[in-house]
Design goal:
Elements: H1 5-20, H2 37-46, H3 48-64, H4 70-82, H5 89-104, H6 109-129, H7 135-151
Length: 152
Amino acid sequence: MALSAKKLQEVMKEKRRRDKLPPRPVLAELIPLTLKRGELSHVTDRCSTILLAIETTIVQSAREHSQVDDEIVRLTLACLIRQLPAESEAVALVASQLVAARQALPVSDDDWLLSLRAICTSVINHRKQNAGAFSYLTSARNFVAKANSLRQ
């Protein structure tokens, strides 16, 4: 179906107008906070020591500071995963402790990021399944205690 001369002229005029516009900025795609089920089991197998170090640090932060709850943990992990500034003092505190723990570990950036995403997946899943501000932290405390007893 051919365009009429007038319609073709309008289309070409619109094309020239669009060509003169400045290019649209490309939005950076945000890194997802969670892992898929297959990825999660792979990360758990591959990065178990990193996961334990992260969870131990989070549990320790929650013991030291009463304002740390599941939401603070989720926000902290989101900030670290997406490399955003901390939104609150509690988030900054937990983030600084996690960064310090990361410095003590010989781990690649990819493994660290995958581990953070795995923990964030756990936090989000616990919050969906169980109502309450400390569902993930309670589970993490139990896990860390069990892991430490097995190490001894």
